[in-house]
Amino acid sequence: MAAGAPSEEEAAHALAVLRGLEALRAERALLDVTLVAGEAEFGAHRAVLAAASGYFRAMFGGGLREARAARVRLHGVEAACLARLLDFAYTGRLAEPPEPEAAEQLLRAADLLQFPAVKAACGAWLAARLALEPAAALELQDFAETFACAPLAAAARRCVLRHAARPDGELAAQLERAPLARLLSYLRDDALRVPKEEAAFALALRWVRADPARAPLLPQLLAHVRLPFVRRFALLAHVEGEPLVARSPACRRLLAEARLFQDGRLDRHDRAPCARLRPRPSTGLAEILLVLGGCDRDCDELATLDGLNPRTGHWRYLAEFPEHLGGGYGAAALGNDLYVTGGSDGSRLYDSVWRYNSSVNEWTEVSPMLKAREYHSSAVLDGLLYVVASDSTERYDHTLDAWEPLQPMLYPMDNCSTTTCRGKLYATGSLAGKESMVIQCYDPETDLWSLVNCGQLPPWSFTPKTVALSGLMYFVRDDSAEVDVYNPVKNEWDKIPPMLQVHVGGSLAVLGGKLYVSGGYDSTFELSGMVECYDPETRTWSVAGQLPEPIFWHSTVSIFRQFMPEMSEEDEELPLDNAASLNQQRQNRSLQDQNLNELH
Question: Would you give the distance in Å from CA 145 to the centre of its chain?
Answer without folding.
Answer: 26
